[in-house]
Request: fold
Amino acid sequence: MLRDATLIDGSKIAIIGGGPAGSAFAHFAQKWAFKKGIDVSITIFDGKDFLQRGPKGCNLCAGVIAESLNQKLQEEGIFLPEKRIINRVEGYCFHVDGESLLLSCAEYEKNTIITVFRGNGPRYSTFPENISFDDFLLTWVQDRGAKVISQPVWEIKLSDNKHQLLSLYYGEKSNLQKFDADLVVGAFGVNTYLMKKIQNLGFGYKPPSTITTFQAELKLGKEEVLKHFGNNIHVYMPKSKAIRYATVIPKGDYITVSLIGKKDVPREIFREFLNLEEIKTKIPLFKPHCFCYPRIVISPSKNPFTHRLVMIGDASFSRHYKNGIESAFITAQLAAEAAFCSGIDASSFSSFYYKRAKRQIIHDNYYGQFLFKIMI
Ligand SMILES: Cc1cc2nc3c(=O)[nH]c(=O)nc-3n(C[C@H](O)[C@H](O)[C@H](O)COP(=O)(O)OP(=O)(O)OC[C@H]3O[C@@H](n4cnc5c(N)ncnc54)[C@H](O)[C@@H]3O)c2cc1C
Reply:
């Protein structure tokens, strides 16, 4: 089928990935389509089921929702229900060289930074209701008309003819299905083979650089969690070759521990963390039931767009070790605006998405990296 590179009645948008970036893009696309009075169909592909517990249903992150993102969601009319909020954060406690510094949030900010589980809780946990943050966002856009296909995408085919729709192939590997779309949005994050495949399409996309981190959920019981950590996010900067910094985030009966190294973390990093003087007395030495080795973005992608294809979220840009979910939201908002207000050709994405996202996110990274260099 041949079409111009603009979204019109009957256009089909395919979003690969139903994490925060994919759901946010669907939300903004729904808004723009309504505003412009055009009838587009939106289909989100994701093989993950966020109602599963443990890594199977989780997008592998510490689950801190920044106050600024919370505000942006509310401005969009998206209010996270109380049951999906695990904790409200009162402050940050930094531990460096045996000293601790507690920074309480200002009164107006208190309880506005929240913590969530991205999936439906740690492995073997029992919550009476669905608590997944990602499920909440995906259900939000689904209820407003987006279709979800619970299958992974394996391949995308570009065309030399700019009027030709893009094709993607999804489903069981032995029985692939074809889906043609006017616009394909790559919201697949960085823990996927798809990044490499898209790089190999040859239009100049260079995925973001990443390093492997370690993350675990530990069940200590609410009393122990409050006794040792309160409702504060703890950041440890130990004298360690392997650990650049560690965070402990209280979440009800659980704590989430994230360990970031100077490069890919070694397998024994968790034992090293538990043996730190400042941790020994707080967390018993045991193997967590729920742990994973997710990748974190350390540099931006290059050319995350071509004709009819645009990458958003982690697959494009993310703030340096900070508020990745908010970056996903911002890139989704900018890319949707570019697609609906300018076009879905490469030059529209270059001028109205890439340059603006670069200004908002990448420039912020320079300050982030500088601060990291002087602090750690
Ligand atoms: C250890 C660690 C801690 C973090 N802590 C925080 C934090 O506290 N707060 C914060 O804001 N950010 C945090 N981040 C960053 C945050 O996780 C990411 O920035 C955010 O998840 C990016 O959203 P996304 O939608 O781009 O990608 P993702 O959340 O990774 O979602 C991508 C989706 O695409 C799907 N997908 C992948 N491949 C395919 C395919 N081939 N076909 C179909 N679907 C596919 C996946 O199943 C997934 O659902 C942390 C990251 C790490 C590694």
In short: The longest strand covers residues 243-251. Residues 16-22, 45-48, 59, 61-64, 152-153, 187-189, 191-192, 194, 213, 215, 258, 294, 296, 313-314, 318, 323-326, 328 surround flavin-adenine dinucleotide (CB under 6 Å). The mean pLDDT is 93. DSSP finds nine helices and 21 strands in the chain.
